[in-house]
Fold these 4 entries.
Entry 1:
Amino acid sequence: MEVEMEEGKTFLSDAFDYKGAPAEKAKTGGWVSAATILGIEMCERFTTMGIATNLVTYLDHTMNQPSATSSTIVSNFSGVAFLTCLLGGVIADSFLGRYWTIAIFAVVEALGAGVLAISATLPGLRPPPCNPSQAVNCVKANMLQMGIFYIGLCALGMGLAGVKSSVSALATDQFDHNDKKEKTKMEYFFNRFYLVINIGTILAVTVLVYIQDEVSRGVGYGICAAAMITADIIYLSRSRKYRYKKRSGSPLIQVAQVITAAIKKRKLEFPSDVSLLYEDSSPESRVHRTNHFRWLDKAAVISDGDFGKEGSTTPNPWKLCTVTKVEELKMMIRILPIWATTIMFWCVHAQMITFSVQQAASMDRSIGKFQVPPASFNVFFIGGIMITLALYDSLVMKRSGGSKGLTNLQKIGVGLAISIIAMAAAVGMEQKRLKVIRSYKKTPTTTLPLTAFVLVPQFAIVGIAEAFIYSGSLAFFIGQAPKGMKAISNSLFLTTIAFGYFVTTILVNLIKKITPGKDGIPWLASKINDSRLDYFYAVISVLGLINFGVYLVCAKWYKPNSSHGSAKDSDDVNASHDEERAGDAEIS
């Protein structure tokens, strides 16, 4: 909302400058401010992906950890980091605000990368080098060495959670949603957002990974720390130019209030007339009651003591909630089955930075005299994403004038189906690699005479799947969430990534425990060449197929609240590509 306060100057009533006064429209926000904020995100992606994609080889070859253990550590790190995005959102919404959350946690991430650089540089913080010919007798990293390593990794994950939970929302705040010109600029800006941050990813899995492998890990991790500090300094330098929004409180509190009130009133009689349920929301923001999850409606039943002191018109929110607040929670509950069935894809995704990198490390990666770093094969994964998005945009959306295309639920379904194909292809590639191992008489720790580029299909196909899953899931969760819970819906999307990595950890530990045969070697052995990774990939394929069937049932069951938003928000209609991307932007 705009307010004319001085001649020739327009101020925004819902946005503020660094002094806390209404923001002057001409001097704050806009493209440059948003780009500066997203520069932090690009450096975060550069740092996280540069370290995470190559971490499994560091644990294997420097810290001398067993193959399955290395995979588990990487999966747990990624899972915890994305799960704590929920906590990062709470800190930003309720305590620090988005600006300070980003500024502080960018430093935390830089410190984490710095600790990892020290760990990789000082000889006393890593075990003695291991001779490949004596791989069985390698000395593992001791508790102190792993402890320092974990401190750096935890700080890195905390930084990721704080930055990622707030950066897109603060960038969105730099545009006035009530101004058609600025809204168009915002949509155009965020249409390029995913492409820009993937530049950071490509640099990470190519240039940064090469530096780690061919120069030193310490230098590579130090570059990550320097990148985050530099981005944070640039970000802070424009503090006077940003637009800020007041903290609205965490929607998690609203969720807790509705559940608490419903439990407290579970024994109360439900009124015969639903109009007697408490409601004080404005007509334009009101969400009409539905019959789903009726036990939650008890939170809106008026009873003695709900309004605190006598004569008070404001209820205690932990005792009485409006119908709209109850229905907003119901809307979030209705999307949970879709949320749960997308987790399996991220289990597939986890293989691209764990076992697939280990596969590449055991194979011939040469192009002439140049050796491609194992983690750099993820460039084919990123390429699959970017090419798919570009082709979908040009072949589907532009030819249809932006009015047709896959709905968000259809995109998710396509992504899940393609991920099953990717794992099936991975089974075939691994069987080919194992055949070479059986026929190759030299020690299994040397490079196999099989080009690692046979792994390109599994990387690329998973990338194609992610292009559909990522865009469909994020647009669905944000588009179907109530306006006041779009931030938590964004965090909910990030938790699917977290739980996908946790599922991987559970599967790895379970298979190690139940699969030792007569020779005592499990499917996932200490060394990748002694493992039956094809069996593990086959298990993931079967689980993915079962999950896909469950997803189809959940997608058919899902019905949005008809009183929430317009038809454009519903996944039962063909939402345009631009609308989906605009939904990506509107996470505040």
Note: The CA atoms of residues 306 and 312 lie 10 Å apart.
Entry 2:
Amino acid sequence: MEVDEIVDVQPLLLTDAWKMFKEKVGHPISHPLIEPIARHVVEECHGLPLLIDRVARTFRKKDKNVSRWEDGLKRLQRWDSVKIEGMDEVLERLEICYEDLKDDYLIECWRAEGFINHANNFKQARDRGHTVLNELIKVSLLERSNKSKCVKMNKVFRKMALKILSQSANSKILVKPHEELEDFPRKEEWELANRISLMDNGVSTLPKSVDCHDLLTLLLQRNKYLTSIPELFFMSMCHLQVLDLHGTRISALPFSLSNLISLKALYLNSCPDLIEITASVEALKHLEVLDIRKTKINLLKFGSLIWLKCLRISVCNLETGYHIETQVSRFDTLEELSIDVDSSKEGWDEIVKMVVKEVVMLKKLTSLRFCFPEVDHLDLFVKHSPLWEKDSCLTFQFSVGCHDSAFAQILESVDNPTHNILKLVNGQGVDPVIIKVLMETNAFGLIGHKGVSSLSAFGIEKMNKMFNCLIDRCHEIKTIVDGHKTSEAVLKWLENLYIKDVPKLESIWEGPVCAGSLAQLASITLCKCLELKKILSHGMIQQLLQLKHLRVEECYQIEEIIMESENAQLVPKALPKLKTLILLDLPKLTIIWANDSLEWPSLQGIEISMCGMLKILPFNQVNATNLQSIKGQQSWWGDLVWEDDATKQILQSLCILD
């Protein structure tokens, strides 16, 4: 079935939830004794469409039997009989998702426990895992967090999942995240557990030993008062597959770590005091994922784990006094490598230069996250790595000249986590290797760059795979696309354009616009572009059939959003998908569009602040029928000029003023 647009299903309002429930249950719900019970049933579903659907199917079988309806409601309120066919196995995979968890972290846990089958490598496992995650989000079992690339489980489903799994003969879990625990739980709570999650608590001490032969997952991350682990603590955990200690204050790993012979994923990142390991790690024959970023532990301590598949380290984990060539390349089965850089460490660039030569030797990588001090080092990698070949499956996150390894979130895509990212910082001019890498880049960040006046200088006609573009603090750029230098459609797949602090920017597009350019552009953000005068100029607006969000902020020369002088023949159906329009601190702005001829068929919300010269809105009683809110200042609203009172009354009912 073809659709125009895929949208996430949000929890329903109570009235809509009741309507859906009635349609699913049918005639019995109209019974005068059944209806009040049914309304309580709907309240227990908390507006979740999937839950409403499943519960309605169950209650439909109760027909008009009032006692069965009442019993069903009581059982639903206790969550002891919500039976959703085929859900037990799914919920088992989601039990740790109540708190915000990174997509890839969750998928790594699934892989470690064998939930993701038929994946020969990490890339296949991640592809499969993200497919499953997206399906779970679509049916509301998981939901996106406000944090970048994180998911969490709805509290209603979490309650149901914990109840169902507590009754399972094959799975006993102990899940107490964020409960301000200071002590490790009692023995009767954990001794038979398959999985334990005590993340984000205040646990400071652990038992000297525990009898947890069946334990598969142990999550103790971000217990910031935990400073030590008893030497015998891991002695009985021979089946443990996932161990997360990141964000604790431990300084050493006990010798009983060597008993974790089934361990597949070990997370020690962000343990700033961790420096010592007394165990023999050679026993960890099944370990695939190791993360020691932001620790003081030396990578050489894990040098015998040459079978690792996924390694995340910081430059400070490398031994500067040692022959570096033996530190990274020994892990020759690596599929994923991430190296964080802290430029405050003296000599970091020299270390990284040597590491580049090591990375070139890794032939099985499918994912590389790396910071190149200079363009020449990127050139070395591209020229000598066998991974940089046509049809290569390498996914990369590269930064060049970056002072730190924090990649801008604007460049990351939740929907496409395997995007190739290139971040170019404080560079000069255009190097051929940058043009070559940009041909494979999906998200590009140009930051503090000098010596170019437009993005076109980087061979824009070859950027056929770019979806996201960030331009920040580039003080010599005057236009993004120079249409005079191209005779074909460009940026055909660009979805998001974010421009900030580009003081000499005069226009987004200068010159003729070839049909098909910017055909997928959905979001434009312009901030602190002090000389910008043209936004939606001649020829450009006709291409923006997919534009949904436009935000303009602190651009002090802007007088018109849609320039009347360059859009005289503008059709009423222009910008058919625009949903949100945000205009902030534009002191010279006088019009959005010269009249009310545009239909604005998709516009839902506008926000206007500190735009004192904007006196007329381009709306009437007929257009913008989907408009739901107008946010602004009371003083601005009071100064607006209206052609008729009817339009003012209609729009005033949508206002949120301060």
Note: The CA atoms of residues 108 and 395 lie 17 Å apart.
Entry 3:
Amino acid sequence: MDTSAIGGWVASAFISKLVEKAEDVVDLFDYRVLQAQAEDKGRVNSVASALAGSPSSSRTTNTTASTITSSSSGSTAKQSVRALKRFFFCDEDIDELISVVHMFVDIDSHMQTFLKLVELEDSRPVQAVQWRTTTSMPGSKKFFGRVNEETHLKKLLVQKNDESSKPYDVISVVGIGGVGKTALVRRVYNHFHANTCHFDLAVWLHVSDIFDVGRLTKEMALSDTLSMSADLNSLSSLDQAQRILGDKLKGRRTLIVLDDVWNELSSQSENLCKPLHLAYKGSKVIVTTRSKNVASINGATEIMHLHGLEDEDYWGYFSECAFGDANPSEYPQLENIGRQVVRKLAGSPLAAKTVGGSLKLKLEENHWRAVSGSKLWQIEQKEDDIISALWLSYEHLPDHLKQCFVYFALFPKKYNFHGDVLVQMWRAHGFLSMEAPDEIAYGYIHDLLQLSFIEKVANQEDQYVVHDLLHDFAESVSNGELFQIEDDFHTLPPFGSLPFLRTLKIRHLTTVESVDAGFYGNAAVAFPSLEELLFEGMNQWKGWSETCPKLEAFPLMGLPLSLKKLSVIRCRKTFSQLCSEINTSNTYTIQQVTVREPIVGNATKRRRTSSQ
């Protein structure tokens, strides 16, 4: 078995779950403390002082610390938490803590084996994260739209910059993966490559993840228009290669394209461009990148932000991908479905290629409706399709930003996030320390902006929105732990079969009248990990069907024992039933239940119940 597969399984499927379980235990203990403080403010302080001053206190602390590496941790863990019973924790709480300690001890006992596997994996040669290789050669497909952008880029390439002390300018084209940066630059590059009256030399370089100055320098020098000798390839010295290249560039007005750049080290860029200081005034470098940081670090004098294609241009490109040589007007029903699909793809050419390619397999209504009803990430993808392109951007995120990004999957598309509120939500979920200053918190937002994962809302101060395609991608990488459905479902899918689903939000399903047995799926245990469940704005929902399973230990609507928070908001027809269920149920262990009736006038009814 591949060691990377083992390492990935251990890290994501077990350790992360255990960490979450430990966090749950800590949250429970915090809750118990607050509960006791509310009942008797003086009791906690006096007991805590007595424990802190007792001789056994320090011994208990030391014993607990040693438990993590002790093979005889069972009895020690029990001793370590025995003092907690002097507070206000029940036996079940203590057993939960002991269970978590045992599991951490078990991880420790296997950690040496795991580290050896990781060491073996790390010893493999480093491979660049790459999903394609680009060239300047035009493809067979027709070029659609981008008239204004093409005109503007051509204008930038021919204009002089008398204020610059360097003989060349850098122009950066920035946008999310799959938006068409390379296609636009390729079209403009070929215009000047064929028309040699302005540039004496044009060179196309695909950079990708590893910014190898030596390789890129040699590729520039070996371009066919320079007629360099092949023995340059054997040069091991970057200095020699740069001097040879500099001699050939001397007195030439040069156009160089650096496609798909990720490098954020200005020293690397400066090193690569040293020979360009010998080029003729008016030389240009075009950089395509997904990151505004990269654009700035590479010394861009102009930055072009590329967005999706305009509606009719996009439909033209999508039609070519979906219908091929067939005439869309001969398939009016498919054309209607196709136009509905287009609205979901945010003008992304690569998304059109991915979805259109899937539709093209069968020009049949049933097939097209099936694809139309699927999420982007549910459609079969190839290595050079849209999800692979977005995954590359995600892989370049630091870990602390990955969880912040995936969190967006819980909200509807085009949802506007106010910066202050977003930071508070990240803090509440533990993605950001409560003690972290606001400068760090807004640094997270700034980094996501720079990498094009979120965008500023036009004409709105401190408000942000997630690009539609990236919202779909956030759902795909949430690993089934977060899920939200809205608007276009008539019955609820079998979510109970998802073993790691922790948060489920169901909004605005105006045609759903009941939650039936299908919601629970066919798993032996339905919703084994579900902690938070929200129903909102379901106007026709009358309640749980009689076919729903009832759990003996939890009669309230058959909800899972793991559930901690239930919210039912603006669901008019089921309000009375829920209030009745809550009043008659005394055995459930949900920490918070919120049932809110639709607003009538200025009055809103709310019910909140906390576990005891």
Note: The first strand starts at residue 168 and ends at 174.
Entry 4:
Amino acid sequence: MINQLKRCPFKDEYMYDKPIPEIVRKHEKQDPKRKAHQYTSGTESDSQQSVKLASYEEYSISQSGGRRCNREGCSRTEIGRSGLCIRHGGGRICKMVGCSKSVEANSDFCISHGGGRICQYPECTKGAYGSTVFCKAHGGGKRCTSRGCTKPVHMGTLFCVSHATPITYSESITEDQNAVQSTAVSIEDGGSMPIPTSDSDSRTPVESASHGEIQVVPDTDEMSKLMPEKEHYLVSMKDNIIKLELDHQTFLVADCPSSLSRQSVLNLVEQDLCLLPETSEYTSCYLCFLQKNDRLTHIHDSFFQTMPDLVFLDMSDTRIRILPSSLFGLSKLKVLLLRNCLSLDNLPPEIRELVNLEVLDLSGSELYDLPDEIDELTLLRHMQLSFYGPDDESEYAHLPPRLVSPGFLSDIEKLETLTISVHPDDHRWAKIAEPISKDIGVLENLSYLQFYFPQVQMFEDFIERSSSWCKGTLVKFKFIVGRDVKRIASRVPNEIELTFHEERQSLRFVNGNEKVPQVIQNVLARATSFYLDHHMKVKSLSEFGISVFKFLKFCLLRECPKIQSIIGNNSTEGAFPCLEHLSIYYLWELEYICKSPSVKGSFPALTHLTVSTCRKLKFVLWESMLPSLSNLKELVVEECESVEKIVRQEKEKVNTNNNAEMLPELRKLVLQNLPELVTLGNGLCLSEDKLDINGCPKFVLNSRPKEQSVVKQRKFLRSLKAALQFK
């Protein structure tokens, strides 16, 4: 993950996405006023050791920021440079005679007298609402999400007044309302929270859900889906048991009552929260969803004290910097999700108190380090870790000397899923990767592993001694092998790399400088996705052994300066039988996709082929390859300065069927910046609607211009003869 530059909260300079603790402390000493906005937890000594900023924002108006009205006793905000608030005559006033209201936007009148944006509905003079062009009465603003309702929403909720029943935060919810999803808003002590009611008894109690939203439904014989299928996890209930499906694993989270009530689920997903009450009144809560509230920077230490039965907690995609102390008193907690919490620096030693924890997900949060007490969570079955690493070498002086204890996995023997993401240039990882890989090799139940092996020998030792690999239970893996480097700008499009990571068995071999190791060939025999990145010796993929690619679906090649062909002369027919996606970038010596035209039947499942910046390539496909490419849907050729044609004919004429049938599934042919391209070549004839051509000055669309001119001439003569006979 490339660090994103952000503006420093203390002065006008840029920094990376995580401010170094030393820099934070230095600036806080220079600006003591900011301590009023810090949130700390634990003892006073702990707070002094780790100073945390709760927000990057300046003081808000409610915190006495901005200029105030000069009228004695008035604390309202000054409008413009007038020195007064609106009530005392500040700002610009409507020019209509007798009107004292403020003007709207950049106009000279208030809304009542035609100022600002006016509703576009005929004969309506009311102001347009929000970013729309209509007033509320004529459809402006957000609409109620209840089925068939077109009324405006109420008080920032998803429903109108008719479909929302306001209840207090502490009001109990009866059992007959358990099929209704709760929609929450920012709550302060003593406030109210609108809860939508169903339109009819026959309506299915499932609302549209985004990331992490839960659908509360009564128990049925079939598995009731509590989460949308497209999300990264799914919560469901069957036979009074709450289940979690995550990364093809199923976790029995807890036994629950016959049906979940709204008191059992606290759902505050994506509500733009910035503040929560000090304590929660959901005393019987089992599931708590707080994710996707990117303004939430702090949770009171006592918030979870009234939730002793909580078993599932998701705080992903928030800006919390310190976990509340009451969280570590949740002795029944089994699932803790903290994905993409970019402001979270580390976990406290109190994490050891969560003795029943089975799922700990910190992917994307990029912690500074992990406490030694993590090894006391012996019941963990699913653990995903992500560590921060700086691009600037000078930052290491301010970071912890090690990421995690080398033996932290020695007592966690039940692990089934383990992912560890680190900065590729972090020398701290190079020191501990080998002992950690040895402990992973002992895990017998491991079914999914994501790991970075800086050395090929380390990878070879792991494959030889890993019991889960040898038994075949490690069915999902994402391996990076070789000394990786951090690239500020990748030469491969993001969507291509994302497609690579979506495969269940992937191998990335980077910066190889020797012959192909046997261990790489052995792993490729099980892989479905292969990324060959900057290998200095390989001249063809045939050197890996074509037979090892029998299950490969995705192949990506980048910056391999010696590769001359993808399939060499010695390859047999039918290579890459399952390959669907082949992407080639910056292979400067590449001359052939398939070196010999006699190697037929290759790439039968190929749907996408991309060739980019291969300066010695003169053509892409042999004409004899076209019959086997019956599934090809997209062909992209770009920045190849020597390409003269896309399809080249062999010396001996190949018998082919009608050209239009050669690539029956081809929907898109992209040709970009090919200065020497003249024609598509023999065997390939496409209509213009399938072509996307740019920067090809010599290109002639018709591959057989002479034959086409003869056909046109004959048509003209026939039409002329018919006209003369008619006369």
Note: Confidence is low (pLDDT under 50) at residues 1-17, 23-64, 165-230, 703-709.
